[in-house]
């Protein structure tokens, strides 16, 4: 079929050698350039989107998913080390950014209270943010910290600062962590933030961090698109 040939041409010219998450030319421009109808271009683009090589952005067109095009999934080392997300990404020479979705003080529910060994309705600091690698949303992370550890967290701009670094600066050093990973399907609007469909698999990463006195001080729950991330750890 002709759309498959056009799809290959688009991939070869614009996607395979892309070094950044940039916009593809418009349907109209691609149609004129390749001398085919816009419906053919549209079908080729939809096929590339289904393969997660490009993402459609409302009002902007299609963006190349650099993380996938380069076939290098983002490698997360948090599972087996005491390193923060941004520190880990920077070591891999990735460009990172963050968008805060929620930053507030709440009352702990029964589940969070149990994880943090506090009483239900105790005050906790809640930080939820989208993490980006090379402008691609790679993770939605939610952290819950008993407010008694640091009441000033709510006033910090976490779109520019790493929570991991701020905690260390305030004397909360990660001494031990209990972590797990499981595959789920999202039942919340989070899939919209990650440019996913409801059927796409998600890696749910949970972690409880402890001080050197075995006191839990952070519960973290992060959700990653399964096709964008690989977790690695080294056992010694």
From TrEMBL:
Q: Which InterPro entries does this chain map to?
A: Bact_HTH_transcr_reg (IPR050679), Chorismate_lyase_/UTRA_dom_sf (IPR028978), Tscrpt_reg_HTH_GntR (IPR000524), UTRA (IPR011663), WH-like_DNA-bd_sf (IPR036388), WH_DNA-bd_sf (IPR036390)
**Pfam name, any one:** GntR
Presence of keyword Transcription = yes
**CDD domains membership:** WHTH_GntR
A GO MF label:
DNA-binding transcription factor activity
User: Where is each HTH gntR-type domain found?
Assistant: 1-67
Species in which this protein is naturally found = Ligilactobacillus pobuzihii
Record field: transmembrane? none
Keywords assigned by UniProt?
Answer: DNA-binding, Transcription, Transcription regulation
Query: Which superkingdom heads the taxonomic lineage of this protein's source?
Result: Bacteria
- A GO BP annotation: negative regulation of DNA-templated transcription
Q: What is this protein called?
A: HTH gntR-type domain-containing protein
Q: Does the keyword Transcription apply?
A: yes
């Amino acid at each position: 079929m002709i759309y498959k040939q056009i799809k290959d041409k688009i991939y070869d010219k614009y996607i395979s050698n892309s070094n950044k998450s940039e916009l593809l030319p418009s349907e109209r421009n691609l149609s004129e350039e390749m001398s085919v109808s816009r419906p053919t271009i549209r079908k080729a683009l939809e096929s590339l989107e289904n393969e997660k090589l490009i993402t459609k952005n409302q009002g902007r067109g299609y963006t190349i998913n650099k993380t996938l095009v380069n076939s290098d999934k983002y490698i997360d080392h948090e599972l087996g080390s005491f390193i923060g997300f941004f520190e880990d990404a920077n070591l891999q020479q990735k460009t990172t950014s963050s968008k805060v979705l929620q930053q507030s003080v709440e009352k702990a529910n029964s589940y969070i209270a149990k994880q943090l060994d506090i009483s239900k309705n105790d005050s906790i600091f809640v930080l939820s943010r989208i993490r980006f690698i090379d402008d691609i949303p790679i993770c939605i992370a939610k952290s819950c910290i008993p407010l008694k550890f640091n009441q000033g967290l709510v006033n910090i701009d976490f779109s520019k600062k790493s929570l991991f670094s701020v905690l260390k600066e305030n004397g909360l050093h990660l001494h031990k962590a209990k972590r797990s990973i499981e595959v789920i399907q999202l039942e919340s609007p989070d899939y919209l933030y990650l440019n996913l469909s409801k059927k796409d698999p998600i890696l749910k990463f949970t972690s409880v961090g402890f001080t050197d006195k075995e006191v839990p001080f952070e519960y973290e729950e992060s959700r990653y698109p399964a096709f964008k991330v690989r977790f690695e750890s080294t056992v010694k």
